[in-house]
Amino acid sequence: MSSKGLDARFSTEDKEKIIAAGMDLTNDTRKGTFVQEDSDTIVSESFTKDVEILSVKEAAEKISDFQEYWGKAFDAIGKEYDEETDGGYFIRVKAGAKVEMPIQACMFIKKQGITQKVHNVIIIEPGASVYLITGCASAKAAKESAHLGLSEFYVKAGGYLNFTMIHSWDNDVVVKPMSAALVEEGASFISNYICLDPVKDIKMYPTAVLRGERARASFNSLIVSHEGTLQDIGSRVIFQASNTQAEIVSRVVSLGGKIVARGHLNACADKVKAHLECRGLILSERGNIHAIPELETGFRDVDMSHEAAIGKISKEEIEYLCSRGITEEEAQSIIIRGFMDVDILGLPEIIKNEVKKIEEKTLREGL
Amino acid sequence: MLDINRLKVDVAGKRVLDDINLKIDKGEVFVLFGPNGSGKSTLLKIIMGFYGYELVEGSIVFKGNDIVGRKVEERVKNGIGIMYQHPPSVTGVKLRQIAQRLTDDENKINEWAEKLELTEHLDRDINVGFSGGEMKRSELFQLMLQEPDLLLLDEPESGVDLENISIMGKVLNGYLSHPDKSALIITHTGYILDYVKGKKGSVLMDNRLWCVGEPKEMFDSIRRSGYEKCKGCVCPQKG
């Protein structure tokens, strides 16, 4: 399926939501594109021979070793998963390939009252590296819909995966992603999560397993919680090999919703370096932030730490900006945008600027 | 330029400024001395309209209009600029962002940044990890972009080494040599007086202004005899 004319396929209103979730519908800045609407695959196209992009349905027929991956990452962490899914993507990057421009995948909910259930498989072969932007969005008309997304990541020896997921839902959509990543020797898995728009209920606890020495994982989140929202969002790293490291960093802002910011670092080997950091701002009396950082190990030779801080914006900082001629409302918005620092995401310049723009726009309109 | 009349200010129910009268003409530099905690910074903050200070009585007239009750940003747009003694760190907000709010002229930003050795600081979070001297240069940098008519300088030399005082002193002297620009300067060490020529000086002590005189002379006298002596002095001009 070709991506030509993708831009013209969507209404202006839908397009706005899809672009807010990080998609480039012109494909000018992408090396591959996958788009699913409700349960239909609209596009699955790679612009480089180094990357395979197929719907999972197609992959199950054409990819000979497909069954070696399907569900195996969930098995590895002992998680049961829903076998009845309808769609999803299969993306594989060839060994040694360095894909300079990002590939993108979009899960879009168009219809009202449906449950979109997808199961994705991402394989980074040894020494390969790629940036993957996944945008999940719903049309304004998609009332009372739900999105259940299963994602399995296989980052093989020396591989690098930078996975950035941007959610752009509406205030009556329920979202339950489930992710597991198996990270082998010397490989890096970076998972960025951005959710600035309203949503009804999100619950997720992605897990990375560091299975080989010098494997690395990093989970970074930027979350804004609007009134009437419940966001229960955590990240977990299980260190199964020595000399591995990971960090979990989150910045959360409650405008009236409830955020549970979880993090769990579990060192099952020695010489592990791990850090967890959660910073939160509460801007409304109805807001609620609950940070639950957990560190766990039976080994002495580990370096694990966590810090969590929740507070309000200091009056002094706002006044300082006002003393430079900025209004109080604008000063608050500048400080929040600064707090939701895109620099924590470990993105290359090209994606960083894009994400910054999306964030600026969303926060400008949403605050 | 600035005319303060019978000003009384409370903080948390306690009187911190009592019956302050102060007049600064266009082009005039007024120097304020006084021991710690005497209310000098409070006076600057109340002129800015900062939070936490209750104006019980009196008026603050700037360019002919009473500005009491005006918002901070309105006062700034009207031409008042402040140099903080201890500016707060604002994580995630770059010095360049503020600079671009103060002027549209990128060349001006770059020129002043270079002159005040702040080029590398432009893309850093404002005041985060800045040294004392860097903070003060950054404050002055912002003022130079803002180009206020009335500068409120709260101990511009505190925490700054002599080399930095010299850089800042020269910039301030250049700016204030303009016949339309005025300033109210708080100083403890008096170093800034080596660069900026003040016309009038006064001592703020026990919440009140005591005498008005030639700043250099006053400072020398304070250095010789301390502040208490001021109270006994027969003032040539009662503040």
Structure, explained:
The complex is a heterodimer of chains A (about 375) and B (about 240). Helices cover about 15% and strands about 45% of the residues of chain A. By secondary structure, chain A is α/β, with parallel strands linked by helices. Chain A folds into two domains: about 5-315, no CATH class; about 315-365, no CATH class. In chain A, the strands form two sheets. A ten-stranded mixed beta sheet of chain A has the order 2-1-5-7-9-11-14-16-18-20, covered by helices on one side. In chain A, strands 3, 4, 6, 8, 10, 12, 13, 15, 17 and 19 form a ten-stranded mixed beta sheet that branches. In chain A, α5 crosses α6 (about 330-340). Chain A starts with 5 loop residues before the first helix and ends with a helix. Chain B has helices at about 40-50, 70-80, 95-100, 105-115, 130-145, 160-175, 215-225, 230; strands spanning about 1-10, 15-25, 30-35, 55-60, 65, 80-85, 90-95, 125, 150-155, 180-185, 200-205, 210-215, 235-239. Chain B is of the alpha/beta class and about 240 residues long. Chain B contains eight helices and 13 strands. The radius of gyration of chain B is 18 Å and the shape is globular. The chains are: A alpha/beta (about 375), B alpha/beta (about 240). Chains A and B meet through α5 and α6 of A and α2, β7 and α3 of B.
Largest sheet of chain A, described in full?
Answer: 10 strands, mixed
User: Could you state the order of secondary-structure elements of chain A as H and E?
Assistant: HHEEEHHEEEEEEEEEEEEEEEEEHHH
> Which range does the strand content of chain A fall in?
over 45%
- Strand portion of chain B: 25-35%
If you consult CATH, what is the topology of chain B?
Rossmann fold
Give the class-level CATH name of chain B.
Alpha Beta
| CATH architectural name of chain B | 3-Layer(aba) Sandwich
**How do the strands of the widest beta sheet of chain B line up side by side?**
6-9-10-3-11-12-13
**Which spans of chain A of ≥5 residues are poorly predicted at pLDDT below 50?**
none
Our measurement of the CA-to-CA distance between the termini of chain B, rounded to an integer number of angstroms, reads 17 Å
Specify the number of helices of chain A.
7
Low-confidence stretches of chain B: none
Mean pLDDT of chain A: 93
Number of distinct beta strands of chain A:
20
